[in-house]
Amino acid sequence: MNTQRFTRHNWLGALGAVLLTAIGFSAAPAQQAHADRASTRLPLGSMYNVVDQIGARDLWNEGYTGEGINVAVIDTGIAPVPALSDDTKVIALVDLSAEAGVPEATYYDNFGHGTHIAGIIAGHTPGTNPKLAKQHPEWFEGVAPGAGIVSVKVGDNTGAADITQVIAGVDWVVEHAADLKIRVLNLSYSSGSPLPYTSDPLTYSLERAWQAGIVVVVAAGNDGNGSGSLSSPAVDPYVIAVGAVEAISNEKFTVPTWASSGDGTRNPDVAAPGAHIDSLRVPYSRIDMEHPEGLVSSNLFRGSGSSQATAVVSGAAALLLDARPNLTNDQVKALLKKHTQKATPKSSLLSGAGVIQLDEILDTRATKTTQTWPVSLGDGSIEAARGDAHIVLNGVELTGETTVLGTPWDGTRWTGTRWTDGTWDGTRWTGGTWMGTRWTDASWTGTRWTGTRWTGTRWTDSVWDGTRWTGTRWTGTRWTQESWTGTRWTGTRWTGTRWTDATWDGTRWTSIAWAGRVWE
Q1: What is the pLDDT of residue 41?
Q2: What is the mean pLDDT of residues 500-518?
Q3: How distant, in Å, are the alpha carbons of 224, 287, 450 from that of 457?
Q4: Banded model confidence at residue 395, pLDDT cuts 50, 70, 90
Q5: Model confidence over 399-439: pLDDT tens digits?
Q6: Which residue among the candidates 85, 86, 97, 113 is catalytic per the annotation?
Q7: What is the mean pLDDT of residues 430-453?
Q8: For position 37, what pLDDT does the model report?
Q9: Is a pLDDT exceeding 50 seen at residue 488?
Q10: Are the C-beta atoms of residues 180 and 69 closer than 8 Å to each other?
Q11: Which of 511, 519, 514 is nearest to 483 (CA)?
Q12: Which are the contacts of 486, defined by CB distance < 8 A and separation ≥ 6?
C-alpha cells in the first residue's frame, strides 16, 4: 500500500508576496478599473463574486488562504482538472466506492459532483497569488485557495453510494484526521433517512467526527421551502447545517424556492450562496454529458443546490482555522453564526442565522463554547436509514441490515475507530487503498485519463454506451417529478436557468430519461 504523503512547498511564493507588500505594490488604477469592469460581466455565481459575497477576499488580503488546513471531501471523487492539479492541492485520495477495483475509475470523479464541490472549497489556479486575484477575474480561486483536499470517493459514475459507504468514509476520515491534518469534513449529501438523529447510524458517525475535533459541514437539503424538515444528516444539531441562497447582488440575497426549511426546532445554522455556482467541470463526466445546459466554459460548469452552499461554508471554516488555528469546532460554528447577513425572506427556518460574512468575524473574540445536545446512539436500522434510496449492485437491490460488502450490519458498534468483524480494517476497502498520489503534469497517474476523455472503451462517441463500470445504479424510484433526488448529492441540479416550484423547469434533463431500472 502506497502511503506517500506530501508537504507544501509554497515558501517561495510566500516570500514573493512579502516582497511585493514590502515595496508597496498595488494594482495600477487602469488595471483595477479593467478588473472592475470584467467582474461586472461575470455572473453573480462566479467564484470571483462569491468570495466577495461572503467577505473571504478580506482574509486573503490578510494572508489567510486556508494554508495548512486540509478538508476531507466525501463525495464522488475528484478529477485532475487544472485548478486541482497543483502538487500541494490533493493531499491524499481513498476510493470506497463500487469502482475501487476498476483501474480507469479508481479515485477518479467520472460523475462530476465531487470535483465541482472541491473547486468551490479550495480550487486554485496554479502559480497565482490570491492577494492579487482581485485584479484577475480570469483566475479560478475557491473560497480557501490555499487549503488541501483529501478526496474520499464513495459514489460511482451514477452518483450511487450506499449509506454504509458514506459511514465508512466518515470513519476513514476520523481514523486518518491526525495523520493528514484534516480539520474540516464536507458532506454535500442527503441520506433521505426518516430516523431521528439520536438513532441514525450516519449522524452517529458524524458526531464521532465532531467529537474528534473536526468541523463537520453538511447540506440542509433541496426539498423546497415547505419541506418542514431539513434533510438527514443535517437534522443533527451538532454539525453545521447549511442552507442555500441566491445572490441578487454581491450584498443582497434571496432564498430559492427549492431550499429546504427547518421545523422551528432544527433549522439551518447558516446560509451561503448556492444558486447558479460556476465551479470546476469534468469533461465527459456523466453530469457533463447529460446536462449540457450547465456548460459555462471548457473549465467551468454551473450547478445549484445546498451542496454548493455547503462547500462555500467548508472553505470558510478552513479560512477561519488558518487565521485562528486554536479555535475549536464549536467555536468555529458559533463564529460563523454570529456575523451574518439576512436573506429575503428573513426567516430562520430557511437560512438560519443568515448568510455568513467572514470579514466581520476575523477580529471577533471567540468565547468558550461547548454544544450539549442529546447525543446520537446510532442504534437505528441501517435499512431505515437508507430511506427510499437503494442502490442496485450487480443486478441485486441492496436492502436489509446488510452493508455494501454483503456483510451483516450489526448496529453501530465500532471497535475503537474501526468496523467490527474485520470488515473495515482502517486502510483498505474491497481492494481500494488510500494513497497520496499526486497529479503529474496535470494528468492522472496510473490511469488512462488524458485530460479530456477516456482512452479506454467505456465511452463511445462521446456518449455513455450503456455499460456500467461496476453494475451499481439507483433503483427506478429515484426520478421524482422530473427532478433528480435519488443520488442524494444535494447539488445535482445542473442548470444555468432558474428552478421553478422546486422542480426542473424543462420536461426532462436531456434526451436521456429514466425508465424503470435501466437507462434508455
Answers
A1: 83
A2: 28
A3: 40, 19, 14
A4: confident
A5: 999 999 888 997 644 433 333 332 333 333 333 344 443 33
A6: 113
A7: 36
A8: 55
A9: yes
A10: no
A11: 514
A12: 389, 474, 475, 477, 478, 479, 480
Backbone angles phi, psi at 104, to 5 degrees: -70, -20
Asked if 131 contacts 60 with a C-beta cutoff of 8 angstroms, the reply is yes
Distance CA 262, CA 264 (A): 6
Q: Classify domain 40-520 by CATH architecture.
A: 3-Layer(aba) Sandwich (3.40)
What is the rounded distance in angstroms from the CA atom of residue 234 to the CA atom of residue 214? Answer: 16
Higher pLDDT, 463 or 48: 48
- Our answer to whether residue 97 is catalytic in this structure is no
DSSP assigned state of 366: P
Catalytic position from the list 52, 58, 75, 223: 75
Q: Is the pTM of this model over 0.90?
A: no
Instruction: Please tell me the total number of residues recorded for the chain in this structure.
Output: 520
Supply the pLDDT for residue 515.
Answer: 26
Of 271, 270, 204, 264, the closest CA to residue 232 belongs to: 204
pLDDT at 363: 82
Q: Is 337 within 8 Å of 270 (Cβ atoms)?
A: yes
Buried b (16+ CB within 10 A) or exposed e, 425-446: eeeebeebebbebbbeeeebee
Element (H or E) spanning 92, and its range? strand 90-95
95 and 103 Cβ atoms separated by less than 8 Å: no
CA distance 492 to 296: 16
With H, G, I as helix, E, B as strand and everything else as coil, classify residue 100.
coil
Could you say which of 307, 314, 351, 376 is catalytic? 307
Take residue 411 and report the three cell numbers written for it. Answer: 448496529
Q: Are 159 and 166 in contact (CB under 8 A)?
A: no
Helix axes 329-338, 306-323, angle to 10 degrees: 110
Residue 485 neighbours by CB distance under 10 Å: 21
Does 113 participate in catalysis according to the annotation?
A: yes
Residues 6+ apart with CB under 8 A from 95: 77, 106, 107, 153, 429, 432, 434
Task: State residue 186 phi and psi, 5-degree precision.
Answer: -105, 125
d(CA 353, CA 346): 9
> Where is pLDDT greater, at 156 or 435?
156
The grid coordinates listed for 423 are 470488515
Highest mean pLDDT among 1-5, 405-409, 468-472: 405-409
- Of the candidates 223, 221, 258, 254, which has an alpha carbon nearest to the alpha carbon of residue 236? 221
Nearest to 469 by CA among 73, 110, 80, 78: 110
Q: Which residue has the cell 511585493?
A: 20
- Residues 89, 131: contact at Cβ < 8 Å? no
Q: Provide the phi-psi class of 395: left if phi over 0, else alpha when psi is between -120 and 50, else beta.
A: left
Least confident of 32-36, 61-65, 140-144, 391-395: 32-36
Residues 328 and 157: their CA atoms lie apart, in Å, by: 36
Specify the pairing of strand 432-433 against strand 428-429: antiparallel
Domain limits, the chain = 40-520
Yes or no: say if 78 and 84 are a contact pair by the CB < 8 Å rule: yes
Paired sense of beta strands 182-187 and 418-419, if any: unpaired
